[in-house]
Design goal:
Radius of gyration: 29 Å
Structural class: mainly beta
Number of helices: 1
Distance between the termini: 98 Å
Largest sheet: 5 strands, antiparallel
Helix content: under 10%
Length: 232
């Protein structure tokens, strides 16, 4: 069934798109032996309704559709895009004008996309005659205006972790400065260590109340308080 023959007077520019976006994406990076973050889906639910210029629902079928995320309501930089093509078996199913997709399901969305601030979703369909075919023609242009993604209530917690900003946490690959008192309260022979590769330079053994500085080697230099290389 050819879309263009059923509705010869309908162009994609005249199709109105009612969008209802619900976003609940929270991404965290924690260095830990147990990685629960692997279970968090990095997709965004997106629902919409396609209608003709007369307000009637668009014909049911599997549609070609382009989805893009930008950092501005117009112009700006494209941060992510995904082509949902019928030919690849990834077209968008439309039933009585309604459709539902998961953004990031075909082309994954990285967490860095959501660090740019406001995001705007752009939707584009091909010409009416090729809307549901395996050879779409993209000459109609994207629908306007773009739709700004909103934040669901609990997603606000992703801005902080237990109320703390990301600047309050130490990073494994960065130089960190600790300004508060730090206590190590672990009954272990290796409660706190400073290592250079396999060489243990500093070790706090809280099980025996011992502090070891340096390593056992042929130099015999295990502990140095201070050195002075100049005369006097």
């Amino acid at each position: 069934m050819v879309f263009g023959r059923l509705f010869p007077s309908v162009s994609i520019r005249s199709i109105r798109l009612a969008l209802f976006v619900a976003t609940a994406l929270c991404v965290a990076f924690v260095s830990h032996s147990v990685s629960a973050i692997d279970t968090v889906p990095a997709t965004v639910s997106f629902q919409g309704r396609l209608v003709t210029s007369s307000g009637a629902p668009s014909p049911s079928g599997t549609y070609n559709m382009k989805l893009s995320l930008y950092d501005a309501s117009s112009g700006g930089t494209q941060l992510w895009s995904s082509d949902r093509l019928v030919s690849a078996g990834q077209g968008v199913l439309v039933q009585n004008g309604l459709f539902s997709v998961r953004i990031g399901e075909v082309n994954p969305i990285t967490a860095s996309v959501f660090s740019s601030g406001d995001l705007y979703l752009e939707v584009e369909l091909p010409t009416p005659a090729t809307a549901t075919t395996s050879s779409p023609v993209w000459t109609e242009g994207p629908m306007t205006p773009r739709n700004q993604l909103a934040t669901s209530a609990y997603a606000f917690n992703s801005e902080t972790l237990d109320g703390l900003d990301s600047a309050d946490f130490a990073q494994l690959t960065a130089a960190n400065t600790f300004t508060g008192a730090t206590s190590v309260n672990v009954a272990s022979a290796n409660a706190f260590q400073v290592r250079n590769g396999a060489t243990n330079l500093f070790n706090v053994d809280t099980s025996t109340s011992q502090i070891a500085i340096g390593a056992s080697d042929t130099t015999g230099l295990a502990f140095v308080l201070d050195t002075k290389t100049s005369a006097g």
